[in-house]
């Protein structure tokens, strides 16, 4: 009896060992995200990171054969977490820029965006150049920060920098600045969901198109290949469109 049991146990153990590679989930990658950027990434009541970027990257990971763990990470220094190895991917509505490409690698683009202006409902601002001599709040080191620097000059005292976009918007609400410049999706989302704030959106056709990508450590080809395969697959089978529709309606 004991012998039989022992044999059975050995057989089970062997089959588990043999089966493990087949059933093992892919590697889990640590994902940095500044979760104060709804609808792309924000924290819900249960302290989970949720949003468009989360849904898209989870779907990408499922197709690419890997797992992801989102970790709320301050925007300032977010890219440095790749070189230190603390994080494997930055998924944070990150615009692919030539400057950033020097120090990190990007996936294929997964979203098109542009800058947009938020002002108080009574503001006379109608276009970007109207902000030339006005006080503007931006999130430090974002493409919003860059475009305002181009308009006002790098050292302009009228650019007020904040560590998050909600803080920049807070400054507009308290009257400390005349405008906020940030990504269109975030500006539109805030204005629409905070009607009491009496803000309005100002669009300007001079803003260039931007494309979001996932950033990885320079040279991490293996991960980039898996991410790009996943992006391709979710675009091909309709998963991407489904997620897009959930957050932004029809294209
Ligand atoms: N797309 C802009 C950039 O790459 C802003 C991104 C900010 N993202 C965030 N989660 N705070 O500079």
UniProtKB/TrEMBL annotation:
Any Gene Ontology CC annotation: cell envelope
GO molecular function, one term: ligand-gated monoatomic ion channel activity
Pfam family, one: SBP_bac_3
Chain ranges of the Ionotropic glutamate receptor C-terminal domain: 28-250
Organism superkingdom: Bacteria
SMART domains from the UniProt entry: PBPb, PBPe
Signal peptide: 1-24
Protein's UniProt keywords contain Zinc: no
Domain Solute-binding protein family 3/N-terminal: 28-251
Main location: other
Keyword tags: Signal
Matching InterPro entries: Iontro_rcpt_C (IPR001320), SBP_3_CS (IPR018313), Solute-binding_3/MltF_N (IPR001638)
Annotated PROSITE patterns: SBP_BACTERIAL_3
Localization terms from the record: Cell envelope
Keyword Transmembrane: no
Family the UniProt entry places it in: Belongs to the bacterial solute-binding protein 3 family.
Name of the molecule in the record: Polar amino acid transport system substrate-binding protein
Organism of derivation: Silvimonas terrae
Organism phylogeny: Bacteria, Pseudomonadati, Pseudomonadota, Betaproteobacteria, Neisseriales
């Amino acid at each position: 009896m004991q012998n039989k049991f022992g044999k059975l146990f050995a057989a089970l153990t062997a089959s588990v060992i043999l089966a493990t590679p087949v059933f093992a989930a892919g590697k889990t990658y640590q994902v940095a995200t500044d979760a104060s950027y709804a609808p792309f990434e924000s924290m819900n009541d249960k302290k989970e990171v949720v949003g468009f970027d989360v849904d898209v990257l989870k779907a990408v990971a499922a197709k690419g054969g890997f797992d992801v763990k989102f970790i709320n990470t301050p925007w300032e220094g977010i890219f440095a977490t790749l070189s230190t190895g603390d994080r494997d991917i930055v998924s944070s509505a990150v615009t692919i820029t030539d400057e950033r490409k020097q120090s990190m690698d990007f996936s294929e683009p997964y979203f098109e965006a542009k800058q947009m202006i938020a002002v108080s409902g009574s503001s006379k601002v109608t276009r970007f150049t109207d902000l030339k001599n006005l006080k503007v709040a931006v999130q430090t080191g974002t493409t919003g920060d860059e475009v305002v620097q181009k308009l006002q000059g790098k050292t302009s005292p009228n650019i007020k920098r904040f560590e998050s976009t909600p803080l920049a918007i807070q400054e507009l609400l308290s009257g400390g600045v005349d405008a906020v410049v940030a990504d269109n999706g975030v500006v539109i989302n805030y204005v629409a969901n905070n009607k009491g704030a009496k803000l309005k959106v100002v669009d300007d056709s001079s803003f260039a198109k931007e494309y979001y990508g996932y950033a990885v450590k320079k040279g991490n080809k293996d991960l980039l290949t898996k991410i790009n395969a996943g992006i391709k697959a979710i675009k091909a089978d309709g998963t991407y469109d489904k997620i897009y529709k959930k957050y932004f309606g029809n294209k």
